[in-house]
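Table S2 (continued). Query chain:
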Amino acid sequence: MESTGHDWPDPAEQHLVGQRRSARDFSDPSLEWRRLFAETWGTFLLVLVAAGGGVVGELSGGRVTLAMMVVAPGIMVMAIIYFMGSVSGAHLNPAVTLAFAMRRNFPWKRVPGYVAAQAVGGIAAALFLRTMFGTVGALGATLPGPGVTSGQAMALEAVLTAGLVNTILGTASGARNIGTNGAIAVGGYVALAGLWAAPVTGASMNPVRSLAPDLLRGDFHTSWIYVVGPLVGAVLGVAFEWILRGKPTAAGRIAAEGTLGIDGAAGPKV
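Corresponding output:
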């Protein structure tokens, strides 16, 4: 075949260059504040909707149904992945950050900053709800349902979180966590888990989502369930991902870290 005169770059070479740029830009400290802000703002919105459903449901006398309360966080997660997944990876959850780190898609040294940002966002959302409405609806706290023991609730939270982590890591393996497929899959899983499990545990799957309302209402007697369960679930999810897919992928790292500084999201550096 005759040459067309175009010197097309080799796909493998393009991929390698992209990996190097990703590593360089992710280590750029001048961009870290954007990632931490994204995690703070994203977690604020998630907890506002997740906990706010219980608050508004109580205020409205039941006009906000249980189905609405559990579907809303799923849709919010979907929206957040769309608008800031490329900035920080849209973890929004300490269990997810831990899972990405254990999967070797995310550097351990960045974990404390991400978790702190998520905690600030979640607490700010609970504080906003309390300032607006008081402690109506227990500030949307997640609690075991009637007749559900603490052990049962913890085990279910672990299983639900394992499924969430597998959904996130599975879509991230093809760099889809930043795009359409990942947003739909993760948001859909959050809604689906809530539709059947919310009456049993609240379907938190997120320590910050549960701890923030508990902190603002000063009641911690069930908080351990929603810390231990999701963390155990994160470990299980990562173990299952190793079984399913083997070694971590470069695409998974890009999904965990975002593409800030590569796709122009950061704007011009000055």
